[in-house]
Specification:
CATH superfamily: Vaccinia Virus protein VP39
CATH topology: Rossmann fold
Number of strands: 8
Shape: globular
Number of helices: 8
Radius of gyration: 18 Å
CATH architecture: 3-Layer(aba) Sandwich
Distance between the termini: 33 Å
Bound molecules: S-adenosylmethionine
CATH class: Alpha Beta
Largest sheet: 8 strands, mixed
Helix content: 25-40%
Strand order of the largest sheet: 1-4-3-2-5-6-8-7
């Protein structure tokens, strides 16, 4: 599989954290899990979801995987003209040089970039598809700055597909303060609760439907937004398109 490894500007704190968490040992175990996950239905559903997003294009696509890790989802892409994988962890990127089902990607030019998805500068309108699985509203905040960056990288008619952790995931600890805030946000008119809601999603470290709609409004039109469950979390899953 042809790959081209590029380096990036200095990382911010989220990326530094990821680079030290995803060290060589962790990356090796993560890559082994890529093989085991093929038997897990929620994983296969995600691969199929990603493939169907690609099917919405009527041309070969240039795709960017934000936080690509070991390249777990590379082989789910279809109609691929070129692929860029960005990740903060050099160890994860080393594994991504031989991702699962590498043979299916043999004809695709792949560029692996070590960098911080919150800082890296791609030229405007570089990609037809920007996708991110298991990263945004999970390891880094999904916030207005990130939405603006993705919008700039997309070509007209391009799509942003991503997963999040939902604030109502059973994996999120339910403190008394969180229970009270959730009840207030559910009962009061939204116009009264933007600050409370922002606290519930911890500024984008979790994301629910309201947070996603607010962030994307005026930038990208939502094509689909739904919840799904993995073995660990309740997630959100969204596809949004940039106007042609
Ligand atoms: C849970 S893994 C998901 C990897 C891959 N998307 C998948 O689904 O298998 C999270 C990945 O995000 C990367 N990451 C976290 N913060 C990042 C940042 N600020 N910039 C770039 N990559 C980051 C980590 O290094 C790690 O590879």
């Amino acid at each position: 599989m042809p790959t081209d490894m590029a380096a990036d500007s200095p990382n911010g704190r989220w990326a530094d954290r990821a680079a030290s968490l995803y060290d060589a040992d962790y990356a090796r175990r993560y890559r082994s899990r890529d093989d085991e996950l093929q038997a897990v239905q929620s994983h296969r559903d995600l691969l199929e979801w990603l493939g169907k997003v690609c099917d919405r294009f009527d041309r070969p696509i240039a795709a960017l995987d934000l936080g690509c890790g070991t390249g777990r989802y590379f082989w789910g892409l279809r109609h691929l003209g070129a692929l860029t994988g960005l990740d903060a962890s050099p160890a994860m990127l080393d594994e991504a040089r031989q991702p699962i089902h590498a043979e299916r990607l043999a004809a695709v030019p792949i560029t692996l970039v070590q960098g911080d998805l919150m800082r890296h500068a791609f030229p405007p309108e570089s990609f037809d598809l920007v996708y991110s699985i298991g990263v945004l509203a999970e390891h880094v905040p999904l916030d207005a700055a990130l939405a603006g960056r993705v919008h700039a990288w997309l070509r007209p008619g391009g799509r942003f597909a991503f997963t999040t952790v939902h604030p109502r995931s059973p994996s999120v600890p339910v403190t008394l303060a969180r229970r009270v805030a959730t009840a207030a946000v559910d009962r009061l008119p939204p116009v009264l609760t933007p600050a409370l809601h922002r606290r519930l999603v911890v500024g984008g470290l979790y994301a629910d439907e309201r947070w996603i709609r607010t962030l994307l409004a005026g930038r990208l039109a939502i094509e689909s937004l739904e919840r799904f469950r993995s073995d660990v979390h309740l997630h959100g899953r969204c596809v949004a398109v940039k106007a042609s």
